[in-house]
What we know:
Number of strands: 2
Mean pLDDT: 87
Order of helices and strands: EEHHH
Radius of gyration: 18 Å
Low-confidence stretches: none
Distance between the termini: 37 Å
Helix content: 40-55%
Amino acid sequence: MGRQVIPEDFPKNDWLGAVSGAQPKLLVRQNGERYEGASTEEARLERYDICEDLAQQLAPYTRLKMSENCWSLEEALPRLEASVAKKVHNCQWDFSAAEVTWIMKRTREVLLVPVPQSPSQS
């Protein structure tokens, strides 16, 4: 099986931060039992998989909401983005702002692909 390719537009999570105090500090992230000082390609691939999966789940959910409420895509997406942002803000979901932006862009792309109709719907 070939290695999965991460799209060029997927955000790179370079951890930037500042911690006050006189002593020098090192910004790290815990990954299981290890602490890492920079995002690895493996960690980026994992984040990509999570974000892509969410976009694939949000697309049919958005289609359903559009159908139930007679919303256009342009009406539905801001509501969806607000809902995602609220879950991130309330610490229900762990995504960076750049990842949320990418998820919404990807969800739009998925929604723009026509859904094939089953023979019974024709």
